[in-house]
Design brief:
Layout: E1 5-8, H1 16-24, E2 25-30, E3 35-41, H2 54-72, E4 77-78, E5 82-83, E6 85-88, E7 93-96, E8 99-101, H3 106-127, H4 130-134, H5 137-153, H6 156-164, H7 169-194, H8 200-208, H9 214-234, H10 236-242, H11 245-248, E9 259-262, H12 264-267, H13 292-295, H14 316-328, E10 335-338, H15 340-343, H16 353-374, E11 379-385, E12 392-393, E13 399-409, E14 415-422, E15 428-431, E16 436-438, E17 443-452, E18 461-470, E19 473-485
Antiparallel strand pairs: 1-3, 2-3, 4-5, 6-7, 7-8, 9-10, 11-13, 12-13, 13-17, 14-16, 14-18, 15-17, 18-19
Helix pairs in contact: 2-5, 3-16, 5-7, 5-9, 7-9
């Protein structure tokens, strides 16, 4: 469904449904061929029925797992009281357990984003929108908000009854209590979000002492408001209208992609009946038209109408239908995870071109990232030439170049570093200290003088290499190229 919906109706009709549709359509443009184009349709509230089953259990597990990681990860300390996961923007550091990343390590983030995109493409091509149904933040937080709503207002019939009744003390108390709990949970979410950027223990002390800074206050309120608005009010509208993934997912689907589908050949023609009835003799299929699959759908679609981009593959309709099939004594699987080829009686192909390409790229980038992280040296060296002069001659007749070395110790421990240079025969290195102490996460700038005999210079610009290594850890070693300028020959 797109924001512009096209409905074919008779030019003149006074049916109740048509009248209701016209009332809900804010702007309707009529054409000569009997088409009415609704430019905007008023949203109808969706009250998903609670459902139990295999997929509901998996959703609960994934909600507990993802929210557990989100809310408790900032409270884990690592090493000497340092937060295990902390994006320290003022210090331009990113702490991830035993690693500390700096702006120079930005390409690691690029690799992670590429891996995330390829993973999404691969999982979508193979198993459809499992990300949307089980781990998408919008789905996860909406599940929590729905659970709170059911605990306070009751199940689906009670919620619908409460929504229709006039405002009274019962409605005010229930609605007010629900939104109060929603807001508290949203603020806790915003507080946790800020705790990934400001040490969360310091942040909690600031909250308790009413001494929050302006930026912390803004982002707690902003992220809390976003959670409250998206999960409490917008809900399925985010999936239907705002999420770009819903729009381009069809580019990753094919007839072998696992989707949630209704078996029309088995279920049609649908119709109500008693369990003891001979529905085959009545000319009916297995679908009893109970509409439970619609009532449990968080986006309000009818899966029996076929594949729709609004479907988030949560599996709620499968659990609901299997429960009804059990009660009727029919085989499960009228609604199930399947593929279009399987429904058409054709064999499925798991290994196909797009799957192989996605998997190969994902494996290559993943292995490259792992190797890069394992071989990463937490040390960086930046060299700048003295801008006052290209070179000068010493009293001893040597050619001298001056450099400024900026040493960045990206390790979590202090180290003493030694500087050497090579590339010219008899190249001398003059430095104030034989060993340079740099604190953990510290930066130090030092001047270095390189001296060479003019007879050893084959040309006016000669490549030299600086070598920086830690005297207390031989693995901390970096090399950096530079140019040595001077007159060529004696």
């Amino acid at each position: 469904m797109t924001p512009i919906e096209t409905h074919r109706r008779p030019k003149t009709s006074n049916t109740k449904n048509d009248q209701e549709d016209r009332q809900k359509a804010v702007t309707v443009v009529s054409t000569d061929d009997g088409l009415e184009h609704a430019l905007y349709t008023q949203r109808e509230s969706i009250y998903p029925r609670a459902v139990h089953g295999v997929f509901a259990t998996w959703r609960t597990i994934m909600v507990a797992l993802t929210l557990g990681v989100y809310y408790f990860l900032p409270w884990i300390n690592w090493g000497e009281g340092r937060q295990a996961f902390l994006i320290d923007l003022p210090a331009r550091k990113f702490h991830l357990f035993w690693w500390t990343f700096w702006p120079q390590d930005l390409f690691y983030l690029t690799a992670v984003l590429i891996i995330s995109a390829l993973s999404l493409f691969l999982f979508t091509a193979v198993a459809g929108r499992l990300w949307c149904g089980y781990t998408c933040p919008q789905t996860v937080w909406t599940e929590v908000f729905l659970w709170i709503e059911r605990k306070i207002e009751g199940d689906r019939p009670k919620q619908m009854k409460l929504a229709k009744q006039p405002w009274n003390s019962e409605k005010v108390i229930k609605k007010g209590s629900k939104h109060f709990v929603w807001i508290l949970f949203s603020l806790w979410t915003g507080f946790t979000f800020v705790g990934y950027f400001t040490p969360i223990r310091e942040l909690s002390q600031s909250v308790l002492g009413f001494s929050l800074g302006p930026w912390e206050t803004f982002w707690i309120a902003f992220y809390g408001f976003a959670t409250y608005g998206n999960a409490g009010w917008l809900r399925e509208q985010v999936c239907i209208y705002l999420c770009p993934y819903a729009r381009f997912q069809s580019a990753m689907f094919d007839r072998d992609t696992l989707i949630i589908s209704y078996d029309g050949a088995r279920g049609e023609p649908r119709g109500s009946r008693q369990r003891r009835d001979d529905y085959k003799g009545m000319g009916l299929g297995d679908c009893i038209d109970c509409t439970f699959c619609i009532q449990v759908c968080p986006t309000g679609i009818d899966i029996r109408d076929g594949l729709q981009y609004q479907c988030i593959a949560c599996g709620a309709c499968i659990d609901a239908c299997d429960t009804v099939m059990d009660k009727m004594g029919y085989a499960k699987g009228l609604i199930r995870h399947t593929t279009e080829n399987e429904l058409a009686g054709k064999p499925n192909r798991i290994l196909r071109a797009r799957v192989v390409i996605y998997a190969s790229l994902l494996t290559a980038v993943g292995l490259a990232l792992i190797v890069a992280v394992l071989l990463r040296v937490p040390l960086d060296l930046d060299i700048t030439r003295d801008r006052k002069t290209l070179y000068r001659e010493t009293d001893a007749g040597l050619v001298e170049n001056v450099y400024i070395l900026k040493i960045l110790n990206m390790d979590n421990e202090p180290h003493r570093y030694v500087v050497n240079a090579e590339g010219i025969k008899g190249l001398g290195v003059n430095i104030e200290h034989s060993e340079i102490l740099v604190e953990a996460g510290g930066i130090r700038e030092i001047p270095v003088w390189l001296q060479a005999h003019p007879c050893d210079l084959a040309k006016a610009s000669t490549a030299v290499t600086f070598k920086l290594h830690a005297s207390d850890n031989p693995k901390l070693l970096v090399r950096q190229d530079a140019r040595f300028l001077g007159p060529a020959g004696c």
